[in-house]
Amino acid sequence: MGAHSGLYRSDGQISLIAAAAVVALELRQLADGRAGARISTAAAAQNDTTVWKTDGQYTMPKASGYELLDGLPAYWDHSAGVATWRKVNDRDYFLGTVVGDVANATLTCLIDLNVQPVWEIDLRQGLWTSEATDGLGVTSLFGGGVKLAFDAVAEVAQAALYSERTLPIASNPIMMVRFAVVDNGDNAALDIDIGLAIGSHATDFEAITEFVAFHLDGDTLDLDAHSDDGTTDVAPTDTTVNLVEGTYVEVWIDARVPTAIKLYVDGVRVLSGTTFTLGAATGPVKAILHMEKTSDDTPAELRVVELKVKTSEQ
Amino acid sequence: MADAVKHQGSSEVMDYTPTTAIAVGEVVQLSEGRAAVHPVAVASGAKGAAETKGVFLVTKTATQVWIQGGPIWWDHSENAATCNEPIGAGDRDFYLGTAYDDVASATVSAYVCLNVEPSYIIDSSRDNGDHNVIKTVVGSTTVEVPNIRQIGGMMVMNFGTTAEAQTTSWISDRSFAVGSNWVAEILLEVSTAPDAAAVDIDVGVGSGIGTTDFEAVAAFAAFHLDGDDLVIDAHSDDGTTDVAPTTTTLSWAAGTPVRLTLDGRDQTNVKYYVDGVEVNEATSNMGKLTAAAGPLFAVLMAEKTSDDSPLVLKARIRVRTMQEDAER
Fold this sequence. Notes:
The structure holds two protein chains of two kinds. By secondary structure, chain A is mostly beta strands.
């Protein structure tokens, strides 16, 4: 084999001719989409050679109003110039993973640049089991998401999707789900649940013995949460977040402390005064999407485009 | 403040303050899910440095054959590395890296490239392919047609329970040369088992895909499930040497995934593995693709002759190639 390649530069840094002036310690998105951090404390002028690091850990500005959780992905909010939990439809891009939990009011955070989280459960990977009793069941969305739907037929119906991979309660799981209730129906007969559970149920999610989940109760758009570990049953409680039909939200279930599970909606902790617990649960738990209705003609549609769970040693 | 102020110049070493003491060489899972190794002991509550990159010698699960470049996981409860992807199980296993070398079954330690992921040329959960669904009785009373869908990165194939011949199949768009040192890694679960011998399931690599009979494909190396028989078979054909389905002596069960591997680095003797254990090594000419012209494709096919047998199967096929198979 001939000399097809020669080392130009080791990984971890890239040099660029600046197309415009560059400030000290600037962060920018490189041509391959990765984040690049300039570690020089000096400004550079147009056409200067500048060096950009693509790995390492960096302290970055963060806005107040949301939390960041250890090991979850972080994005660079291009317009605001801060690290955030979710990119939106402007020039935001993937930054890396968060190092350490970051409180709502804290204005800096530590980011492991360009490091991708490794998920133990991922809606786009691995084995999943779907269930359907009447209704329209579980169908795939182009791009890797799923849709659970009921049509307007007066019948008992259920649709569920759950991971075949299960995780021990003690595995420090954090679950993130991005979903939209596209149709919340027209009757209290409907229930929707998204969370971690020991199993599924043909007609009643709350009959599952161990779970922690976000919950929609009938045709209300109030987002509730509840848990049950076989000993302590926390009934559905209003997070005070109201969903909007067709609008996606991102929820996190932080079960690293099973006796004090924290819940988040769009980066903001909810129901901090309520103790959700899997402390007495034996597990293991799986990720589950579950929709049911008692006999009624209410339609419903749930779309989930991201569902991931990570674990860690501590 | 500045956009980014350097805290640490590399992601290869991470600060790690354990809540319980860490021993030398201990493998842990970091908060973002990556694997890390501690080069020195760290006391509980003391700050240590966990390494996330490099080639490490790790304890290996005996009875498994590792194939160079293949994915390896850390079996948390056994404190050993394994080539079997964690599925179900309810344990804390996590991804470790790739096998640095081929490793024999009896060997109990082996090198792993930490946090490196294989680069597949074909991945059915990611790449395009062509699928085919056939039901035969025109104007029949079929109410449940056979179908293929994809959920969670797995192809899901269903048979309708109408008594008729049906086929569902998938073939990758990308193909590869027979001599490209290929390895095919397959995850297969029969969720709803067939109830008749009329059903055939084949998964592996082939020069094409048939419409009603996988064995009509000119060249292939594949695993085979024969109807409601719970034994996993293997077979191959290169157009000259046809090895009929032969038992691997291992079984499958409905709802239990099996990890199947075809090691095609020697086209005169493709090797077959079930859950990391080599099978059919003594079957004459099994895996002989010497006369196969190729190219080969990743293929999955479920077929039944006229019968009302149900079937639900889930499968993922990944293929990787390499310049050569060489000890380092």
